[in-house]
Amino acid sequence: MSKIFVLAIDGPAASGKGTIGRMLAEKYGLDYLDTGSLYRAVALQMLRAQVPLDSESSAEAIAKSLDLDLTSDPEIRSSRLAEAAATIAALPKVRAQLKVIQRQFAQRHPGAVLDGRDIGTVVCPDADIKLYVTASPEIRAKRRFLELQAAGSPLSEAEVLADVMARDKRDTERATSPLKPAEDAHLLDTSNLSIETAFGSAVDIIETHRG
Ligand code: C5P
Fold it and tell me: pTM value?
C-alpha cells in the first residue's frame, strides 16, 4: 500500500479550518478528525458527571476511556461546551491522553486530515503538509454569530466576539501545547475569502508542496 498521507490543520476558532479540512479529506480520500470534538466530549462527560473542570485526575481518566459517541452529540457545539473544552484543554494529562487517540487515527491507511490547535506542532510534527488557517477575530466572530443565530442562540455578535477573544487568549497563552503555527506551516488567511476560494488556495498549497 502507498505511504500514509497526513495533513495537519491548525488555527483559532471559526477560522474555517473545519470546513476546509472536511473538503480536503473528501477531495483526497482521507479520513477526517475534528480534534476539538475530543476536548468537547471530555468536557461534556465531566459536566454531566458534575466533576469540577479543574480536576486533572478525573479529566485524565475520562479522556483515557473516552466515549467517542459523545463527539457527535449536538450538545458539544454550544458556547458553554466550547469554553469548558478550552478549560480542560489546558490540563497536560488530558492532552497526553487525547494525543494517543489522535496519533492512532493519523497512523491508519490511507491517511488523514486532522484539525485542531497543536496538530502540526505536537500531535503530528511529521505531517506531510501543515496549514495554519486564520482570520481576524471580528470576521471569525461574525461567522460564529451567524451559525449560532441560525441554531437559535440568543447571544449578540458582541458577546460572541468576546467569547472568541477569550478562547483565543486561553488557547495561545496556555503553557502546554499553545495554539501557534508550526515553523513549517503554510499560512492561509481566510478573512476576505469565500469558503470555495479558501479551499482552492489550500489545494494549491498542497499540490505545490506535496512530495
Ligand atoms: O476546535 P474547537 O473550537 O472545537 O475546540 C474547542 C477547544 O478545544 C479549543 O478552544 C481548544 O481549547 C481545545 N483544543 C485544543 N487542541 C486541539 C483542538 C481543540 O486545545 N487540537
Answer: 0.96
